[in-house]
Amino acid sequence: MGFLSKLFGKKEEQVQELVLNSYMKGKVVDITEVPDPVFAQKMMGDGFAIIPEEGKLVSPVAGEIIQVFPTKHAFGIKSGEVEILIHVGLETVAMKGEGFDVAVSAGDRVEVGQTLLTYDLELVKEKAKDIITPCVVTNMDAVANIEVLKLNETVDFLQEVAKVKLK
């Protein structure tokens, strides 16, 4: 053991990979297929999207809720070194929370599969631009790559959908 490791102790092992589980029941699609340039051009980060079959959103990771948008349609979650954003539907901000029932608040610790939101999917179909629900890693500077495992497959809650490899 070298002098520095004796002085500072053993370096803590960092988790090098984070599994993103399915946060919805539905079809997984590539982020570039989201009909919104902010997501499709990866301006906010890389990831994937799910076209939901029912109005329920669960946490894809264990971590901390760092943001619940006032309009209830989007969530920021931090898990280890990874920060993700899940955005329910497109242009759902205009709904001002109508039809959305949020089950968590900023600062809450969440487990994989914990319900974050239940919502009226039919109302979103009627009032929003699209029901597609992107999930993006917003701090891509910490990430080496994202491997989507279930592209163009229909998934149920909590199936492994993607792996985020850290730098």
UniProtKB/TrEMBL annotation:
InterPro entries: Dup_hybrid_motif, PTS_EIIA_1_perm, PTS_EIIA_component. One of its GO terms (cellular component) is cytoplasm. It is found in: Cytoplasm. Signal peptide: none annotated. Its main location: cytoplasm. It comes from Gemella haemolysans ATCC 10379. Pfam families: PTS_EIIA_1. It is an enzyme of class 2 (transferase). Residues 36-139 form the PTS EIIA type-1 domain. Keywords: Kinase, Phosphotransferase system, Sugar transport, Transferase, Transport. It comes from the Bacteria. This is PTS system, glucose subfamily, IIA component. GO terms for biological process: phosphoenolpyruvate-dependent sugar phosphotransferase system. Its EC number is 2.7.1.69. One of its GO terms (molecular function) is kinase activity.
